[in-house]
Amino acid sequence: MATVTFRDETATGRPVTAWEVAGLPERMTVRELIRLRVREEVLRYNARPGERFNGLVRPDDTETELNGHRLREPRRIDWERQADIAELAFLANGFFVLAGDRQVDDLDETVDLTTDPNLVFIKLTPLAGG
User: Fold this and answer.
1) β-pairing, 68-71 with 62-65?
2) Is 29 domain-assigned?
3) Is 36 inside any structural domain?
4) Burial (Cβ within 10 Å: 0-12, 13-18, ≥19) of residue 118
5) Pairing of strands 118-123, 2-9
6) Which domain holds residue 118?
7) Are 2 and 117 in contact (CB under 8 A)?
């Protein structure tokens, strides 16, 4: 069994947040890892719903703020919908994932969690103007 560390960083490499999930298979696809990450963050939010959700992708009907997404009113979030949105965001280069010292660019790529237990997620922000 493997333990993976999910870490968010800014595009300049500044750490934002990190947490671990233990008891995972030694190998998982990027798709499975993204869905696992989203499921975990939504389950944590749903355990104590509040006005702000800080996750990989923005839930429907929320406003993006500096430190997360503001919900109009606290509610349960559907992790499967969020995971689907995250997959689409990955494919559209909304964020990228580093496994160890390399960027993974295919949802079906397998990551060996015994050699690359640290996954870094870097969200890309669209530029204004143009």
Assistant:
1) antiparallel
2) yes
3) yes
4) middle
5) parallel
6) 2-123
7) yes
Query: Would you say residue 130 lies in a domain?
Result: no
C-alpha span between 45 and 55 (Å, rounded): 9
DSSP state at residue 127: P
Task: Give the pTM.
Answer: 0.89
Q: What is the pLDDT of residue 128?
A: 43
Q: Is residue 128 part of a domain?
A: no
Indicate the residue type of 7: R
**Residue by residue, what is the 3-state secondary structure of 22-42?**
EEECCEEEHHHHHHHHHHHHH
Q: Identify the pLDDT of residue 130.
A: 41
Count of structural domains within the chain: 1
Q: What is the pLDDT along the chain (130 residues), one digit of tens a residue?
A: 999 999 999 888 889 899 999 999 999 999 999 999 999 999 999 999 988 888 888 887 777 766 677 888 888 999 999 999 999 999 999 999 999 889 999 999 999 999 999 999 998 865 444 4
Report the distance separating Cα 74 and Cα 52, nearest Å: 8
